[in-house]
Specification:
The complex is a heterodimer of chains A (254) and B (240).
Chain A (H helix, E strand, L loop, with lengths): L21 H11 L4 E5 L3 E10 L12 E4 L3 E7 L1 H22 L5 H14 L11 E9 L3 E7 L5 E3 L2 E4 L3 H9 L8 H15 L7 E10 L7 E2 L2 H24 L1
Antiparallel strand pairs in A: 1-2, 1-8, 2-9, 3-4, 4-5, 5-6, 6-7, 9-10
Helix pairs in contact in A: 2-3, 4-5, 5-6
Chain B lengths: L4 H4 L17 E3 L2 E6 L2 E7 L2 E3 L2 E4 L5 E5 L2 E8 H21 L7 H17 L6 E8 L5 E6 L5 E3 L2 E3 L2 H16 L5 H18 L7 E7 L2 E8 L16
Antiparallel strand pairs in B: 1-4, 1-7, 2-3, 2-11, 3-12, 4-5, 6-7, 7-8, 8-9, 9-10, 12-13
The chains are: A alpha+beta (254), B alpha+beta (240).
């Protein structure tokens, strides 16, 4: 599958002869094994959807949050090692608080991503540290700049997107997302589509149960990041489940 | 003591110069508060005095901390802005955890007491008196006072500065006559007290905000003003 590091993968402080940093690649592997995380930037906001795979019947619904708020005007969805994710999110919150203390305005998304990317990159150049095993999708909306969506990977690289998927089902998710005309859809419409994508990429065989976590930030929420309200969440979930059943029926008809 | 040359070379000598607040610069005058059956009402005028100069005539001395707590600041305005900044960040930090838990009025009051008492102990006070108004976790109205030397208490009616001498007796009498005062009645009481303060306090202004906290939430309304009649001051006698 992947080439063996054979001695060049012992620390993040080493390159391999063919120019790869294996520790960073292994960190990216950790993200790829996590439950899918989707984010779509619409016309008036950003919607996040997470496939939270449930491994136990004792699990409390709504706990183990995968979406976080960074200073109320930015939302973050995480995939990978969840403890690493918490550390990165705490750092992001500190950066946001310090920025606000100095400049008296909320931190712009791009600035936060650069700072957080810089921080995560720091862990990829020293032999005594290991990289963060997380990818973070960050989104914001404000009156002046509209919606913005960015991704930070374990290497610390930041990229801007209209639609993004990380985790197990990212290939299928990206295919589904590409079919959507995102820039013309509002958050309300996108909430259902995001739910649908998460449900469609969920592998029923390998990971029995999962909980869908949906959050949004946009004009509807007045620029505050929050979990999608219960009624809209239920409606989106129903739409996703029905779409899944419809496509199943289509398969059996054939 | 800090001027001794030997102190300069000590390993635990502070890197930054040690600062001690000596005097307030831009100041706000009285903040009034009264606890009613259905909530709490506080009021403050919008003047930032620069000594005897009425310099900044549209400042906000009442601040909403969260949906359940309001504070009013008397004294140095820069120190009050510092307190507002700390409280705002605290509210955001609480909100992003996303579990619906917030700090109620007694919590904020106690936190302020800790901060202010600590600063006074270091001889570097935040030169303020803060009135904390809001709800407890069970929804009961709460009204607290905390000042620059860390004195802190709760009462049915509170006032800072000149208000303690002029408005407090008015508020206490009103509460005696009407122990079941409502927020609406309290607003009128505030306006009356602020009017008398404008007559008598040389650092007051006839432009103010009124903040009301009830179980439903809190809001700060204003700027408002009262009608005043200065004709009685035209011919004073006995002061020649």
């Amino acid at each position: 599958m992947s080439s063996i590091g054979s001695g060049y993968d012992l620390s993040a402080g080493q390159f391999s002869p063919d120019g790869r940093v294996f520790q960073v690649e292994y960190a990216i592997k950790a993200v790829e094994n996590s439950g899918s995380v989707i984010a779509i930037r619409g016309s008036d906001g950003v919607v996040f959807g997470v496939e939270k795979i449930i491994t136990s019947t004792l699990y409390e619904e709504g706990s183990n949050r995968r979406v976080y708020s960074i200073d109320s005007h930015i939302g973050a969805a995480v995939a990978g090692l969840l403890s690493d994710a918490r550390a990165a999110v705490n750092r992001a919150r500190d950066e946001a608080a310090n920025f606000k203390d100095t400049y008296q305005v909320p931190i712009p998304l791009k600035t936060l991503c650069e700072r957080l990317g810089h921080y995560m990159h720091y862990f990829t150049v020293y032999g005594s540290l290991r990289p963060f095993g997380v990818s973070i999708l960050l989104g914001s909306w404000d009156e002046v700049n509209g919606p913005k969506l960015m991704e930070i990977d374990p290497a610390g690289a930041t990229r801007g997107y209209y639609g993004c998927a990380v985790g197990k089902g990212r290939q299928n998710a990206k295919t589904e997302i590409e079919k959507l005309d995102m820039s013309k859809m509002t958050c309300r419409e996108l909430v259902r589509e995001v739910a649908k994508v998460v449900y469609s990429v969920h592998d029923e065989v390998k990971d029995k149960h999962f909980e869908l976590e949906l959050s949004w930030i946009g004009k509807e929420t007045n620029g505050q990041h929050q979990l999608v309200p219960k009624e809209i969440y239920e409606e989106a979930k129903k739409y996703a489940e029905e779409s899944l059943n419809d496509s199943d029926d289509e398969d059996t008809d054939m | 003591m800090k001027d001794r040359v030997a102190d300069f070379w000590r390993e635990d000598a502070p890197v930054d110069p040690v600062k001690h607040t000596m005097r307030p610069i831009v100041t706000g005058t009285s903040v009034l508060g009264v606890k009613c059956v259905d909530g709490v009402v506080i009021a403050a005028d919008t003047l930032g005095s620069y000594g005897s100069l009425a310099r900044f005539r549209d400042i906000e001395r009442l601040m909403k901390v969260n949906d359940n707590v309001l504070i009013g600041g008397f004294g140095d305005y820069a120190d009050f802005q510092h307190i507002m900044k700390l409280l705002n960040q605290q509210t955001i930090d609480d909100a992003v955890i996303g579990d619906g838990v917030y700090r109620d009025a007694p919590s904020i009051h106690n936190w302020l007491r800790c901060v202010l008492y600590n600063r006074r102990t270091k001889f570097n006070p935040l030169w303020n008196t803060i009135i904390v108004a809001g709800n407890t976790y069970t929804g009961e109205p709460y009204l607290g006072y905390v000042d620059k030397i860390g004195v802190s208490f709760e009462d049915r009616s509170v006032a800072t500065g000149f208000g303690a001498y002029i408005a407090q007796p008015m508020m206490r009498r009103a509460l005696e006559e009407n122990p079941n005062m409502t927020c609406v009645q309290a607003r009128e009481l505030m306006a009356r007290c602020l009017k008398v303060l404008f007559y008598r306090d040389c650092r007051a202004l006839n432009r103010f905000h009124i903040g009301v906290v009830t179980r439903a939430g809190c809001e700060i309304s204003g700027p408002l003003s009262t009608d005043t009649d200065w004709s009685i001051g035209a011919n004073p006698s006995g002061y020649e």
